[in-house]
Each structure stands twice: as structure tokens, then as C-alpha cells.
Amino acid sequence: MTHTPYAPEDEASPALLRETGPHERILHLIKVAFRGSSRALQSRLRHHGVLYGHWTLLRILWQLDGMTQRQLSEQAGIMESTAFGALQAMEKLGYITRQKLPGNNKQIRIFLTPQGAALRNLIVPLAEETNRIAITGVPDEDLAVTRRSLVAIIENLNIDEMTQAATKEPGQATEKKPEQSGRPPRKKTGAGGQARGETA
After folding, report:
1. Would 114 be classed as within a structural domain?
2. Dihedral, 24, 28, 30, 31 alpha carbons, nearest 10
3. How much helix, strand and coil, in percent to the nearest 5, is found in the chain?
4. pLDDT per residue over 116-175, tens digit each?
5. Looking at the domain assignment, is residue 78 inside a domain?
6. Domain encompassing residue 118
7. pTM to 2 decimal places
8. How many structural domains is the chain composed of?
9. Based on the number of CB atoms within 10 Å of its own CB, is 195 exposed (0-12), middle (13-18) or buried (19 or more)?
């Protein structure tokens, strides 16, 4: 029995992707490339018992050890609560330690253990191998253009994000406080009378 490779419905085959226009769905192509590279690296990490989410945090700590949890989550581009769960697991595995600074019990910094630091020599070559496979057959001049184009796309999106944040109406992102009427505010209910909550 043959195994069918994973192929998400929203990802077209390479043959179909080549037929799209030069500017059509460029962000979709970036997404497809990212998913493919992530799966390739995940497969390699799995053989060594390392989770992809741990790799994301480890590669930052290898560059700058002793960051706070908030700094680390911002660098990784993930929610602080997500980073907290991953760091708990990494601490149990012996990859990191969490230490409070003298005189500041609220600020906890993350430090690599010798075991966590040693993983660098194991994992980085796997990431480099994945990168080499991804760019196989792509001429150097095309790679140079791709890098410049991706940097420009990232800069454009960063500018757009800042513009959107600056033009957002005051109070749009904050919840309206309930009026002080001497009694607790009524909960909004949806179907079945259950209280509504934010969608995850």
C-alpha cells in the first residue's frame, strides 16, 4: 500500500502554480513555500525528538540568551501564553531554566542549559539542509532577486500595519466599561442562552 503525501486542499501543485500570472497570489505562494519548508524541517526534528515549536524559541536563545518571556515571544512572533506553555515543556526537558532577577521578582529571564545550548550543533545543520533542498536548482541571481523582493514585501506590510494602527479610532480596540448602576452587568447570551465569548 502506497502512502499519499500530505497535500492541503488550498495548495496547488507546482505545475499549476507555474501557470499563474507574475503578480497573482504572491502571498499564497509564500504561504505554500513556508508550509512546505516547515513540514520538511518538522520531519527532520521529529527524528531527534525535538518539537518545531521548541526549535522556534531555541534558535532565538542561541543568538541572545537571557531574554524575558515577553521579549522571546515578540521575537518569535507568537502569543506570550503560547510561549509560556512551550517554555514550561522545554524546562521539563532540561533545555532551559527560568530565573528571577535579584530585586525584581516579577521579571523572569530565560537561560539555556548546557543541554539546550548543545542542541544547536544538532539542529542548525538540519535547518541548513532543509534550506539547501528548498533552493535546489534556483540560480544565484534569482535567489538575490527573491531576497530583495521578500524584504520589500515585509517592509510594505510593516508600514501598512503601522498605518492601520495609527488610523484606528480611539477606543476601537478597547472594551467599553459597564456603567456603574449598583448591579452587575448582564451577560449577553447567544443561542441556547449561553454566554457569548470571543472566538479563538
Report:
1. yes
2. 180
3. 55, 10, 35
4. 999 999 999 999 999 999 999 999 999 999 999 999 999 999 999 999 988 876 655 544
5. yes
6. 14-139
7. 0.65
8. 1
9. exposed
